[in-house]
Amino acid sequence: MEVDTIQKPALAVDPPDENFDPDFIPETGEQYLQKVMYERGKCPVVVVAANPQARHPQKVLTGLGAVPTDDVKNIAPQALMPTKEWESMQNQKFAELRDIITAYRESAQYSENLQRTHVFLNFDDRKQLHEYCANNLPYVRILLSIPQRNLEMLLEYLHEWLQDSEPASGQSSQDEPSDPELCDATSTLTPTGSKEPRRTGCRKDWITQWIYAILACLILPLEPYIHSVLRDIAKSCITLRNELKQEDEMKVLPLNLLISIISKNFNQSDLADNVP
């Protein structure tokens, strides 16, 4: 049968016959190509990878941390679980906050304030970022001056710090920010709405405050790997909640809030506490 011109081989090499010795060391280019053809003929048409779950627990990686899927089993006391009504209220407030921030981004005031916001943060220096976040509130006017890629990077760092920290503490407030220029996007996580800087080591809820604030400022749609980061944050919150006792109702509020926000607003409904 005549071979099509496009399919005609560049080098005419006779295929190995039944007398071909695969252990023979090729001495010419033709012998080498024959050995390649022989080995190719021994390869299976379809290759199936071994099941990794048979030997190792599956992990979801973010680049900075990995949370085994086994760790997301919810074993927290029922008293620490959020109600549907509470979740609905928090998600509504979060959606309203995002609407405020979106409208602020489109205003002339935003461009003017952006020119006045000068906060130098070295995103390659985790120690500097940790110190800054632990001692400063996550004001929206600061977060909006940071490029989204850096906010995404900071989310990864915050997840790492969340895993290294004790469960978040603090009391929830019902007040939402009214002035987008100066608002503290995490007033639902602060007990008094205080705008005084915090001291490193005194409280750990600054981590969840910064995560909440960044979530409110992210521009959608997100890159797939950021959804993976958000999943890992929610899983870490579930793991931290599992370590709390029944009487730790105030400590669980920031954790429940992040789980609810991420599962509802960032398409991670399989991690939700109350499936609609």
UniProtKB/TrEMBL annotation:
GO CC terms, sorted: SMN complex; spliceosomal complex
Composition bias, Polar residues: 166-175
Compartments, record wording: Cytoplasm
Broad class of the protein's primary localization: cytoplasm
One BP annotation, GO: spliceosomal snRNP assembly
InterPro entries named in the record: GEMIN2, Gemin2/Brr1
Domain of life of the organism encoding this protein: Eukaryota
Segments for region (Disordered): 1-20, 166-200
Keyword terms of this UniProt record: Cytoplasm, mRNA processing, mRNA splicing
Pfam family, one: SIP1
Function: The SMN complex catalyzes the assembly of small nuclear ribonucleoproteins (snRNPs), the building blocks of the spliceosome, and thereby plays an important role in the splicing of cellular pre-mRNAs.
Assembly, per entry: Part of the core SMN complex.
Family, similarity comment: Belongs to the gemin-2 family.
Name listed for the protein in its UniProt record: Gem-associated protein 2
Native organism: Anopheles atroparvus
